[in-house]
Amino acid sequence: YNIHRAQLEHSDLIISTVPINDDVSLPILYVNPIMSQLDSDKIQRYIDLKDSRHSEELIEIIELNKKINSKDELLEYLGKQLKNKNLIHNNFIDSVKERECHASTAYGNLVAIPHPLMPLAKQTFIYIIT
Hints:
The structure is a single chain. By secondary structure, the chain is α/β, with parallel strands linked by helices. It has helices at about 35-55, 70-85, 90-100, and strands spanning about 15, 30, 60-65, 105-110, 110, 125-130. The chain contains 3 helices and 6 strands, in the order ββαβααβββ. A two-stranded parallel sheet has the order 1-2. A two-stranded parallel ribbon has the order 3-6. A two-stranded antiparallel sheet has the order 4-5.
């Protein structure tokens, strides 16, 4: 309710539990009053995307029609490929699996966006596999 008095010139983002009707020049992320894992993930995705905009290079890897039979097989395959490309630290896939234990990154219709609990990549990348 006092956002018009806030000094926002050194701010990057507003995280709020209530609608902000004032005109502000910052992105606003809305979260629940008692933050959930989804809220935390939303904030982390914003930070990751903001960081990737400052990256010199975004690596994109695309593999179509890969024969994979399970989520575990897929994660092991991705871990091996990303390690061979020197894009991840050793515990990246373990952190992805731990993240999946907290809340699934599957969105339905065979679409998922697995990611670790915390940033463990050596470089920003997008890996698309079907």
